[in-house]
Amino acid sequence: MILRALAIFATIGPAAAQNLPPADVYVIGEIHGNPAHHATQARLVAHIAPRALVFEQLSGAQADRISPDARRNAATLGPLLDWDESGWPDIALYAPIMAAADAPILGAAGEAGDLSAYDLDTALPAAEQQEREALQAAAHCDALPTDLLPDFVARQRAIDAQFAARTLDALDRYGAPVVLITGNGHARTDWGVPAAIARVRPDLRVVAIVQGEGEPTVPGDIVLQADAPPRDDPCAAFR
């Protein structure tokens, strides 16, 4: 469901956070590695005060290592979660999000479990399939063989369903609201985690917040903008 869109540059302030619509689930997107996006996620989590906090970046086994008395700072969480081996940006970007609420931390990654309720075997409309394949090609620097693109689309659909299932597990276990921290591609309202949740639990109120870097973004209920940090061209090696 599309509630509204807000264009806010830099970090979100207290007044903007207080304008969040009520929801059972907040899906807060990011461009991985943008410090402003992660700072905004921490501010939003502090305002929402979720009953559970679910991370794309963690498996269930990793999240289980975070005991209630563990210090939620980078020095503690980095070694505890084997973060340097994870491939994700610096733990210093994510630790403040984990520390922004006292809620249990859960992982969305890992074993998928039963996803049959999400109709993953149903073919997508042709136009959507084509658009998804084009996005996968662009995301991989147009270096993928075209015959692999349908498999990458199917994998993305399965990941969205898995993240939705893990988020709903957290909601059923701890109550509302629950926050999912994830990339913008999973936060998009048209076919990401919010759409997967709507397929199996249409009664729930889900608010998706996506964050851009000044350019048009994927669809979201709320759109926030921040400056892009300096970064190398990820496709340079393919040229």
UniProtKB/TrEMBL annotation:
InterPro entries assigned: Cofac_haem-bd_dom
One of the Pfam families matching this protein, by short name: Cofac_haem_bdg
Keyword list, A-Z: Signal
Signal sequence extent: 1-17
Annotated Haem-binding uptake Tiki superfamily ChaN domain residues: 17-102, 125-196
Matches recorded under Gene3D superfamilies: 3.40.50.11550
Protein name: Putative iron-regulated protein
Species in which this protein is naturally found: Jannaschia seosinensis
